Amino acid sequence: MFDFLKRKRVLPTFAPLVTDMHCHLLPMVDDGSKSVEESLEVMGIMKECGFEEIRLTPHFNYPRFPNKAADIKERYKKFCSDIEKKKGDRQIPRITSVTGEFQVGDGFDEYLETGQLLTYRFTDATECSEKGVVLIEFSLHQKRMGLEDKVYRLLTEGYDVILAHPERYPYLDSHSEMLQRFKEQGVYFQVNILSLDGFYGEAPLKKSFDFIENDWVEFLGTDMHNVMYAQALRHASVNKRIIKLLEKHEFLNKKLAVGN
Ligand SMILES: [Fe+2]
Q1: How far apart are CA 212 and CA 204, in angstroms?
Q2: DSSP state letter for 61
Q3: What's the gap in Å between 184 CA and the centre of ligand 1?
Q4: What pLDDT digit, counting tens, does each position of 163-202 carry?
Q5: How far is the CA of 176 from the centre of ligand 1 (A)?
Q6: What does the mean pLDDT of the chain come to?
Q7: C-beta separation of 76 from 28 below 8 A
Q8: Residue 23: which of 103, 98, 114 has the closest Cα?
Q9: What residues have CB less than 8 Å from 202, skipping those under 6 apart?
Q10: pLDDT of the residue at 128
Q11: CA distance 84 to 119
Q12: What is the pTM of this model?
């Protein structure tokens, strides 16, 4: 069934992005990597696919993953030191920061009100809002009440907002009025690379290309969780439609990169 995942062929297709800004490789804090070893294996594949840098974005999703910012920062420090000790001569991307993927749902207001929203900065700090850039997601299952109010509050309180994988919400289609309003308000959209390769099915595949063709998408992310996702990234790296897309379309991932 997963024969295609075993193929060894890989290309550095994602090199123009420089940095991956969405992955779950901080071990044992969410449904992503389960160990430093697993993260190392995945990061090796990401490097083969062209990524020079990665930014860790564990889930902050109450009550499923009720992470606390202070604890995540501690674990991040330990993880970086474990990676240095264990990587040996493996080629892997640089780890440049930890932020989070904050689900707009129960507990979100508390993260906001207690200053726990971990944010990215653009390399040129003048290009982002005072409080930085926060990655948010919605429920994948149901449209919750008040999403627009929460996003509006973030914007008015001085955050820039990136909405993760708009193509993955079954209740938001390619012509969604809510998404249209978000674009008018300056919300950035991040599409998952694996959506472009059909990993999540036909509907996300179609919507991901529709959104990009609408010029609605500023960022691509791997949303990397584990070795199976990494093998799927390898598969995506040789997808001709994706290769062409990366050749002709410029994304803003580089603006988050530290090393450029
Ligand atoms: Fe994610």
Answers
A1: 12
A2: B
A3: 24
A4: 999 999 999 999 999 999 999 999 999 999 999 999 999 9
A5: 21
A6: 94
A7: no
A8: 98
A9: none
A10: 80
A11: 24
A12: 0.95
Give me ligand 1 centre to Cα 64, in Å. Answer: 14
Please tell me the distance between residue 195's alpha carbon and the centre of ligand 1 in angstroms. Answer: 12
Rounded to the nearest angstrom, the distance between the alpha carbon of 123 and the centre of ligand 1 is 22
Q: Ligand 1 centre from 42 Cα, in Å?
A: 15
* DSSP label at residue 23: B
**Span from the CA of 163 to the centroid of ligand 1 (angstroms):** 11
Look at strands 53-56 and 94-98 and give their pairing.
Answer: parallel
Question: How confident is the chain (260 residues) per 10-residue block, as mean pLDDT?
Answer: 62 97 98 98 98 97 96 98 97 96 95 95 84 95 93 96 98 95 97 98 98 97 98 98 96 78
- Relative orientation angle of helices 240-248 and 202-213, to the nearest 10 degrees: 20
The token pair at 230 is 């990494």
**DSSP class of 199:** T
Domain residue ranges of the chain, discontinuous segments joined by +:
3-9+17-256
Superfamily of segment(s) 3-9+17-256: Metal-dependent hydrolases (3.20.20.140)
What is the separation, in whole angstroms, between the first and last Cα of the chain?
Answer: 40
